[in-house]
Design a protein that fits this description.
Blueprint: E1 21-25, H1 52-65, E2 69-73, H2 83-92, E3 97-99, H3 109-118, E4 122-126, H4 132-139, H5 144-158, E5 162-168, H6 176-186, E6 190-195, H7 210-224, E7 230-234, H8 238-252, H9 260-265, E8 294-297, E9 303-304, H10 321-327, H11 329-334, H12 342-346, H13 357-364, H14 383-395
Amino acid sequence: MQPMTNIPARGGLNFDETPFLAIWEITQSCDLACKHCRAAAQPMAHPDELSNAEGKALIDQIADMKIPIFVFTGGDPMKRKDVFELIHYAADKGVQVALTPSATPLLTREAIFKLKEAGLVRLGISLDGSTPEIHDTFRGLPGAYARTIQAIEWANEAGIPIQVHTTISRHNAHDLDSLCALFEKLAIVMWNVFFLVPVGRGQLDDLLSGDEFEQVFGKIYELSHRVSFQIKTTEAMHYRRYLLQHNLEERKMGHGHGHPHAASAAYEPGAPTADAKTRTASWATRRVNDGKGFMFISHVGNVYPSGFLPIHAGNVKQTPLAEIYRNAPIFKSLRDTSLLEGKCGACEYKEICGGSRARAYAVTGDPLAQEPCCIYQPKNWDAQLEQEAEAFREAAPTGTLVTL
Protein backbone atom coordinates (compact mmCIF):
# COMPACT_ATOMS: atom_id res chain seq x y z
CA MET A 1 0.00 0.00 0.00
CA GLN A 2 1.37 3.38 -0.97
CA PRO A 3 1.52 6.14 1.66
CA MET A 4 -1.19 8.80 1.51
CA THR A 5 1.08 11.75 2.19
CA ASN A 6 0.39 13.25 -1.23
CA ILE A 7 -3.16 14.05 -0.13
CA PRO A 8 -3.26 17.76 0.75
CA ALA A 9 -4.26 18.69 4.27
CA ARG A 10 -7.15 21.11 4.72
CA GLY A 11 -5.97 24.51 3.52
CA GLY A 12 -4.12 23.04 0.53
CA LEU A 13 -0.89 22.00 2.28
CA ASN A 14 0.92 18.98 0.88
CA PHE A 15 3.09 17.70 3.72
CA ASP A 16 5.58 16.27 1.22
CA GLU A 17 6.30 19.84 0.16
CA THR A 18 5.46 22.18 3.03
CA PRO A 19 5.17 21.73 6.79
CA PHE A 20 2.22 23.09 8.74
CA LEU A 21 4.52 24.14 11.57
CA ALA A 22 8.22 25.03 11.81
CA ILE A 23 10.05 25.73 15.04
CA TRP A 24 13.32 27.62 15.30
CA GLU A 25 15.36 27.29 18.46
CA ILE A 26 16.80 30.80 18.21
CA THR A 27 19.15 30.18 21.13
CA GLN A 28 19.91 27.39 23.55
CA SER A 29 20.72 29.88 26.29
CA CYS A 30 18.36 29.74 29.28
CA ASP A 31 18.47 30.48 33.01
CA LEU A 32 16.18 27.59 33.98
CA ALA A 33 16.97 23.89 34.44
CA CYS A 34 13.62 22.20 33.73
CA LYS A 35 13.46 18.47 34.43
CA HIS A 36 12.09 17.54 31.00
CA CYS A 37 14.29 19.91 28.94
CA ARG A 38 14.89 18.61 25.43
CA ALA A 39 17.67 21.13 24.83
CA ALA A 40 19.54 20.69 28.13
CA ALA A 41 19.82 24.49 27.88
CA GLN A 42 22.88 26.37 29.12
CA PRO A 43 23.33 29.86 30.65
CA MET A 44 25.52 31.08 27.76
CA ALA A 45 24.70 31.25 24.07
CA HIS A 46 26.47 28.87 21.70
CA PRO A 47 29.16 30.69 19.69
CA ASP A 48 27.90 29.13 16.44
CA GLU A 49 24.21 29.95 16.80
CA LEU A 50 22.66 31.52 13.71
CA SER A 51 23.63 35.18 13.34
CA ASN A 52 21.16 37.97 12.80
CA ALA A 53 21.74 37.84 9.04
CA GLU A 54 21.46 34.04 8.98
CA GLY A 55 18.27 34.25 11.02
CA LYS A 56 16.75 36.69 8.56
CA ALA A 57 17.77 34.43 5.67
CA LEU A 58 15.95 31.57 7.42
CA ILE A 59 12.86 33.74 7.83
CA ASP A 60 13.01 34.53 4.11
CA GLN A 61 12.91 30.80 3.36
CA ILE A 62 10.00 30.26 5.76
CA ALA A 63 8.13 33.04 3.93
CA ASP A 64 8.96 31.55 0.51
CA MET A 65 7.68 28.12 1.62
CA LYS A 66 4.49 29.75 2.95
CA ILE A 67 4.64 27.82 6.22
CA PRO A 68 1.52 28.81 8.20
CA ILE A 69 3.02 28.81 11.70
CA PHE A 70 6.58 29.70 12.74
CA VAL A 71 7.60 29.45 16.39
CA PHE A 72 10.63 30.99 18.07
CA THR A 73 11.71 28.81 20.97
CA GLY A 74 14.82 28.03 23.00
CA GLY A 75 16.40 27.75 25.50
CA ASP A 76 14.86 31.06 26.30
CA PRO A 77 14.34 33.23 23.21
CA MET A 78 14.33 36.33 25.43
CA LYS A 79 18.05 35.73 26.01
CA ARG A 80 18.64 36.69 22.38
CA LYS A 81 19.05 40.46 22.12
CA ASP A 82 17.72 40.72 18.56
CA VAL A 83 14.50 38.77 19.22
CA PHE A 84 12.29 41.86 18.73
CA GLU A 85 14.07 42.75 15.48
CA LEU A 86 13.66 39.19 14.15
CA ILE A 87 9.95 39.12 15.00
CA HIS A 88 9.45 42.49 13.28
CA TYR A 89 11.36 41.27 10.23
CA ALA A 90 9.19 38.15 10.04
CA ALA A 91 5.98 40.15 10.42
CA ASP A 92 7.02 42.40 7.55
CA LYS A 93 7.49 39.25 5.43
CA GLY A 94 3.98 38.05 6.29
CA VAL A 95 5.26 35.28 8.56
CA GLN A 96 3.14 34.65 11.66
CA VAL A 97 5.48 34.25 14.62
CA ALA A 98 4.67 32.77 18.01
CA LEU A 99 7.14 32.86 20.88
CA THR A 100 7.74 30.45 23.78
CA PRO A 101 9.79 32.36 26.38
CA SER A 102 10.84 31.13 29.80
CA ALA A 103 9.28 32.72 32.88
CA THR A 104 12.37 34.55 34.10
CA PRO A 105 13.03 38.18 35.08
CA LEU A 106 13.69 38.88 31.39
CA LEU A 107 9.98 38.48 30.64
CA THR A 108 8.89 41.88 31.91
CA ARG A 109 5.68 43.79 31.21
CA GLU A 110 7.68 46.16 29.02
CA ALA A 111 9.15 43.24 27.04
CA ILE A 112 5.72 41.70 26.47
CA PHE A 113 4.29 44.96 25.15
CA LYS A 114 7.37 45.32 22.95
CA LEU A 115 6.77 41.82 21.55
CA LYS A 116 3.23 42.85 20.66
CA GLU A 117 4.51 45.98 18.95
CA ALA A 118 7.03 43.93 16.97
CA GLY A 119 4.21 41.82 15.51
CA LEU A 120 4.02 38.71 17.71
CA VAL A 121 0.77 36.82 17.06
CA ARG A 122 0.81 34.43 20.02
CA LEU A 123 2.67 33.88 23.28
CA GLY A 124 3.26 30.31 24.37
CA ILE A 125 4.21 29.86 27.99
CA SER A 126 4.69 26.73 30.08
CA LEU A 127 2.62 25.96 33.13
CA ASP A 128 3.01 22.42 34.45
CA GLY A 129 0.99 22.56 37.63
CA SER A 130 -1.90 24.38 39.23
CA THR A 131 0.19 25.19 42.30
CA PRO A 132 3.65 26.67 42.87
CA GLU A 133 4.76 23.40 44.49
CA ILE A 134 4.10 21.33 41.36
CA HIS A 135 5.28 23.84 38.77
CA ASP A 136 8.37 25.19 40.54
CA THR A 137 9.65 21.70 41.35
CA PHE A 138 9.32 20.75 37.69
CA ARG A 139 10.96 23.95 36.46
CA GLY A 140 13.79 23.81 38.97
CA LEU A 141 13.36 27.39 40.14
CA PRO A 142 11.37 28.78 43.09
CA GLY A 143 9.10 31.63 41.99
CA ALA A 144 8.69 30.36 38.40
CA TYR A 145 4.95 29.81 38.96
CA ALA A 146 4.37 33.37 40.16
CA ARG A 147 6.33 34.80 37.21
CA THR A 148 4.33 32.65 34.79
CA ILE A 149 0.97 33.85 36.13
CA GLN A 150 2.21 37.46 36.02
CA ALA A 151 3.40 37.07 32.41
CA ILE A 152 0.03 35.65 31.34
CA GLU A 153 -1.75 38.59 32.96
CA TRP A 154 0.56 41.04 31.17
CA ALA A 155 0.01 39.27 27.84
CA ASN A 156 -3.74 39.58 28.35
CA GLU A 157 -3.26 43.26 29.07
CA ALA A 158 -1.20 43.66 25.89
CA GLY A 159 -3.78 41.80 23.81
CA ILE A 160 -1.52 38.88 22.87
CA PRO A 161 -3.36 35.52 22.63
CA ILE A 162 -1.95 33.07 25.17
CA GLN A 163 -1.20 29.42 24.57
CA VAL A 164 -0.20 27.40 27.62
CA HIS A 165 2.09 24.37 27.30
CA THR A 166 1.91 21.58 29.85
CA THR A 167 4.26 18.60 29.78
CA ILE A 168 2.37 15.58 31.09
CA SER A 169 4.31 13.01 33.09
CA ARG A 170 3.93 11.20 36.37
CA HIS A 171 4.50 14.38 38.35
CA ASN A 172 1.28 16.12 37.26
CA ALA A 173 -1.09 13.66 35.56
CA HIS A 174 -3.36 13.95 38.62
CA ASP A 175 -3.59 17.76 38.33
CA LEU A 176 -5.43 18.28 35.04
CA ASP A 177 -8.83 19.31 36.43
CA SER A 178 -7.23 21.95 38.64
CA LEU A 179 -5.05 23.16 35.78
CA CYS A 180 -8.05 23.68 33.51
CA ALA A 181 -9.93 25.54 36.22
CA LEU A 182 -6.94 27.87 36.47
CA PHE A 183 -6.75 28.26 32.67
CA GLU A 184 -10.37 29.42 32.57
CA LYS A 185 -9.54 32.20 35.02
CA LEU A 186 -6.45 33.16 33.00
CA ALA A 187 -8.43 33.49 29.73
CA ILE A 188 -6.05 31.44 27.58
CA VAL A 189 -6.97 30.58 23.97
CA MET A 190 -5.25 27.18 23.72
CA TRP A 191 -3.87 24.44 25.94
CA ASN A 192 -1.06 22.51 24.27
CA VAL A 193 -0.63 19.20 26.09
CA PHE A 194 2.89 17.81 25.60
CA PHE A 195 3.35 14.11 26.29
CA LEU A 196 6.84 13.39 27.56
CA VAL A 197 9.50 12.11 25.19
CA PRO A 198 12.39 10.87 27.34
CA VAL A 199 15.23 12.92 25.82
CA GLY A 200 17.48 15.59 27.29
CA ARG A 201 16.53 15.87 30.94
CA GLY A 202 13.23 14.04 30.32
CA GLN A 203 13.63 10.74 32.13
CA LEU A 204 12.27 7.33 31.17
CA ASP A 205 10.98 6.80 34.72
CA ASP A 206 8.64 9.79 34.27
CA LEU A 207 7.11 8.35 31.08
CA LEU A 208 3.49 7.26 31.37
CA SER A 209 2.57 3.71 30.44
CA GLY A 210 0.21 2.93 27.57
CA ASP A 211 -2.68 2.44 30.01
CA GLU A 212 -1.87 5.75 31.69
CA PHE A 213 -1.82 7.48 28.28
CA GLU A 214 -5.36 6.21 27.69
CA GLN A 215 -6.46 7.48 31.11
CA VAL A 216 -5.06 10.94 30.34
CA PHE A 217 -6.71 10.83 26.91
CA GLY A 218 -10.00 10.16 28.65
CA LYS A 219 -9.50 13.11 30.97
CA ILE A 220 -8.57 15.44 28.08
CA TYR A 221 -11.59 14.19 26.14
CA GLU A 222 -13.86 14.90 29.12
CA LEU A 223 -12.35 18.35 29.71
CA SER A 224 -12.63 19.30 26.05
CA HIS A 225 -16.42 19.11 26.30
CA ARG A 226 -16.59 21.83 28.92
CA VAL A 227 -13.65 24.24 28.59
CA SER A 228 -13.76 27.49 26.65
CA PHE A 229 -10.27 27.17 25.11
CA GLN A 230 -8.87 24.92 22.39
CA ILE A 231 -6.95 21.77 23.31
CA LYS A 232 -4.09 20.44 21.23
CA THR A 233 -1.82 17.47 21.91
CA THR A 234 1.88 17.15 21.05
CA GLU A 235 3.72 13.81 20.75
CA ALA A 236 0.46 11.98 21.40
CA MET A 237 -0.55 11.21 17.85
CA HIS A 238 -2.66 8.28 19.06
CA TYR A 239 -5.04 10.72 20.74
CA ARG A 240 -6.44 11.19 17.21
CA ARG A 241 -7.23 7.46 17.14
CA TYR A 242 -8.84 7.80 20.56
CA LEU A 243 -10.97 10.72 19.33
CA LEU A 244 -12.16 8.90 16.24
CA GLN A 245 -13.01 5.77 18.20
CA HIS A 246 -15.08 7.71 20.70
CA ASN A 247 -16.66 9.87 18.02
CA LEU A 248 -17.78 6.74 16.19
CA GLU A 249 -19.05 5.15 19.39
CA GLU A 250 -21.10 8.23 20.27
CA ARG A 251 -22.60 8.33 16.77
CA LYS A 252 -23.54 4.64 17.04
CA MET A 253 -25.24 5.31 20.36
CA GLY A 254 -27.22 8.15 18.80
CA HIS A 255 -25.56 10.91 20.80
CA GLY A 256 -25.66 13.53 18.09
CA HIS A 257 -22.66 13.83 15.82
CA GLY A 258 -20.00 12.77 18.27
CA HIS A 259 -17.36 14.97 19.78
CA PRO A 260 -16.84 18.24 17.86
CA HIS A 261 -13.04 18.04 18.19
CA ALA A 262 -12.71 14.63 16.59
CA ALA A 263 -13.03 15.48 12.93
CA SER A 264 -11.01 18.67 13.05
CA ALA A 265 -8.24 17.15 15.14
CA ALA A 266 -7.86 14.10 12.93
CA TYR A 267 -9.27 15.02 9.54
CA GLU A 268 -9.06 12.60 6.64
CA PRO A 269 -10.67 12.99 3.23
CA GLY A 270 -14.08 11.36 3.37
CA ALA A 271 -14.28 11.44 7.16
CA PRO A 272 -17.20 13.12 8.92
CA THR A 273 -16.34 16.77 9.47
CA ALA A 274 -17.33 19.03 12.30
CA ASP A 275 -18.83 22.46 12.06
CA ALA A 276 -16.23 24.91 10.78
CA LYS A 277 -16.72 27.01 13.90
CA THR A 278 -15.59 24.31 16.34
CA ARG A 279 -12.80 25.30 18.66
CA THR A 280 -10.12 23.30 16.88
CA ALA A 281 -10.99 24.22 13.30
CA SER A 282 -8.35 26.94 13.02
CA TRP A 283 -5.51 24.65 14.19
CA ALA A 284 -5.74 21.97 11.52
CA THR A 285 -3.11 19.57 12.86
CA ARG A 286 -4.54 16.33 11.49
CA ARG A 287 -1.88 13.91 10.26
CA VAL A 288 0.97 16.14 11.44
CA ASN A 289 3.79 14.03 12.79
CA ASP A 290 7.53 14.29 13.30
CA GLY A 291 8.93 15.16 9.85
CA LYS A 292 5.43 15.07 8.35
CA GLY A 293 4.05 18.58 8.41
CA PHE A 294 6.58 19.52 11.10
CA MET A 295 10.25 20.46 11.29
CA PHE A 296 12.68 21.87 13.82
CA ILE A 297 15.68 24.15 13.20
CA SER A 298 18.29 24.19 15.94
CA HIS A 299 20.20 27.18 17.29
CA VAL A 300 23.14 26.35 15.00
CA GLY A 301 20.97 25.74 11.93
CA ASN A 302 20.68 21.95 11.99
CA VAL A 303 17.32 20.69 10.76
CA TYR A 304 15.49 17.81 12.44
CA PRO A 305 12.08 16.15 12.02
CA SER A 306 11.34 17.24 15.60
CA GLY A 307 13.09 18.82 18.52
CA PHE A 308 12.60 15.47 20.24
CA LEU A 309 13.99 13.39 17.35
CA PRO A 310 17.72 14.13 17.09
CA ILE A 311 18.45 12.74 13.63
CA HIS A 312 20.32 15.42 11.72
CA ALA A 313 18.94 16.02 8.20
CA GLY A 314 21.09 18.97 7.06
CA ASN A 315 22.05 22.52 7.96
CA VAL A 316 20.49 25.72 6.62
CA LYS A 317 23.94 27.31 6.33
CA GLN A 318 24.78 24.85 3.57
CA THR A 319 21.46 23.59 2.17
CA PRO A 320 18.16 25.36 1.43
CA LEU A 321 15.49 24.62 4.01
CA ALA A 322 12.96 23.43 1.42
CA GLU A 323 15.45 20.95 -0.02
CA ILE A 324 16.15 19.48 3.41
CA TYR A 325 12.47 19.13 4.29
CA ARG A 326 11.47 17.69 0.92
CA ASN A 327 14.43 15.45 0.11
CA ALA A 328 16.39 14.47 3.22
CA PRO A 329 16.17 10.67 3.63
CA ILE A 330 14.94 10.79 7.24
CA PHE A 331 12.10 13.18 6.36
CA LYS A 332 11.05 11.07 3.36
CA SER A 333 11.13 7.88 5.43
CA LEU A 334 9.03 9.36 8.19
CA ARG A 335 6.39 10.48 5.69
CA ASP A 336 6.14 6.97 4.19
CA THR A 337 3.69 5.10 6.40
CA SER A 338 4.42 1.84 4.57
CA LEU A 339 7.78 1.79 6.40
CA LEU A 340 6.25 1.83 9.89
CA GLU A 341 7.06 -1.24 11.92
CA GLY A 342 5.24 -3.38 14.47
CA LYS A 343 1.70 -2.47 15.44
CA CYS A 344 1.97 0.96 13.82
CA GLY A 345 2.67 -0.61 10.43
CA ALA A 346 -0.40 -2.84 10.73
CA CYS A 347 -2.71 -0.23 12.25
CA GLU A 348 -5.77 0.96 10.37
CA TYR A 349 -5.27 4.41 11.93
CA LYS A 350 -1.69 4.87 10.74
CA GLU A 351 -2.51 7.53 8.15
CA ILE A 352 -3.95 9.89 10.77
CA CYS A 353 -1.77 8.78 13.69
CA GLY A 354 1.45 6.94 12.91
CA GLY A 355 2.58 7.08 16.54
CA SER A 356 5.22 9.38 17.99
CA ARG A 357 8.32 8.81 15.89
CA ALA A 358 10.35 10.74 18.47
CA ARG A 359 9.21 8.53 21.35
CA ALA A 360 9.81 5.39 19.31
CA TYR A 361 13.36 6.56 18.67
CA ALA A 362 13.95 7.60 22.28
CA VAL A 363 12.82 4.23 23.65
CA THR A 364 14.04 1.83 20.93
CA GLY A 365 16.65 3.70 18.88
CA ASP A 366 14.50 3.15 15.75
CA PRO A 367 12.37 6.08 14.52
CA LEU A 368 10.12 3.71 12.56
CA ALA A 369 9.41 1.34 15.46
CA GLN A 370 5.92 1.07 16.93
CA GLU A 371 4.70 3.71 19.37
CA PRO A 372 5.86 2.38 22.76
CA CYS A 373 3.00 3.99 24.72
CA CYS A 374 -0.02 2.80 22.74
CA ILE A 375 -2.16 -0.11 23.94
CA TYR A 376 -4.41 -0.29 20.87
CA GLN A 377 -4.39 -3.64 19.07
CA PRO A 378 -4.91 -3.18 15.31
CA LYS A 379 -7.46 -5.43 13.65
CA ASN A 380 -4.81 -7.08 11.45
CA TRP A 381 -2.22 -7.44 14.21
CA ASP A 382 -1.24 -10.82 15.66
CA ALA A 383 0.99 -10.07 18.63
CA GLN A 384 1.88 -13.71 19.30
CA LEU A 385 2.86 -14.33 15.69
CA GLU A 386 5.03 -11.22 15.68
CA GLN A 387 6.76 -12.29 18.90
CA GLU A 388 7.47 -15.72 17.43
CA ALA A 389 8.85 -14.14 14.26
CA GLU A 390 11.08 -11.79 16.26
CA ALA A 391 12.39 -14.67 18.37
CA PHE A 392 13.12 -16.65 15.19
CA ARG A 393 15.03 -13.73 13.68
CA GLU A 394 17.09 -13.23 16.84
CA ALA A 395 17.93 -16.95 17.00
CA ALA A 396 19.14 -17.12 13.39
CA PRO A 397 22.93 -17.33 12.94
CA THR A 398 24.68 -14.10 11.95
CA GLY A 399 24.56 -13.57 8.22
CA THR A 400 21.54 -15.84 7.71
CA LEU A 401 18.85 -14.50 5.37
CA VAL A 402 15.54 -14.86 7.17
CA THR A 403 12.30 -14.42 5.25
CA LEU A 404 8.91 -14.67 6.93
